[in-house]
Design goal:
- This is Glucose 1-dehydrogenase.
- The protein is an alpha/beta fold and 261 residues long.
- It has one domain: 3-Layer(aba) Sandwich (Rossmann fold).
- A seven-stranded parallel sheet has the order 3-2-1-4-5-6-7, sandwiched between helices.
- Helix 4 packs parallel to helix 5.
- The longest helix is centred in the middle third of the chain and has 29 residues.
- The termini are far apart.
- The model has no long low-confidence stretch (mean pLDDT 97).
Amino acid sequence: MYQDLQGQTVIITGAATGLGEAMARRFGQEKANVVINYYSSNQDVQPLIDEIHSHGGQAIGVQGDVSKEADVKKLVQAAHQHFGSLDIMINNAGIENEVPSQDLSLTDWQQVIDVNLTGAFLGCREAVDYMLEHGIKGRIINISSVHETIPWPHFLHYAASKGGIKMMTETLALEFAPKGIRVNSIAPGAINTPINALKFANPKLRASVEELVPLGYIGRPEEIAAAAVWLASSESSYVTGITLFADGGMTKYPSFQGGRG
């Protein structure tokens, strides 16, 4: 547990499911104030809000599309109006879809870039602006992917968006370090989230992915949430501009494991 996170205000985009939900739950356990962003009106975040309250944290839900400038501004305004501050911004919302690169339409390309990269940019920009205005030495965490460094055929738009997040994170970290604002990324590997549920429910497909993970298992959303609270806490006070790979070693060339190659 990180005592310094108690009473801190965090915005988490795309927090209705998957990694975002796990991070919201963990920050609630740390007794933080959590702004839960969700995209669709069909997503019910009230049970998550209630759970956060049961742990002694506070939470509100705010619907919004992170690719829309006005909606991201609304998130920051909600944090200020309800909790009086914004200390931590987590740009987690993201989408993917498989398309052979030669068939990738401009519409598909733009949709993924708009949500994954432009959405993260807008979250970073609005958070930095708020932190500068209020003299807050805040923390920004961007959720990237192992595919910021591992090429991924048929997911050109997704890999490009995550590569962009890497450089955006590093640039912002360098630019705003003198103001005490720390900017880092987390790059998850294969994690058992709803977006992967169908694939991992198939024993053969699951095994094929596990072969790519030196630790030998599919990660849990809670393991990514643990990385997020560490980066948000004072325990990581001398850390900025990094990508923290939480991937079970996936980026370490597992085909060479055991002396092969």
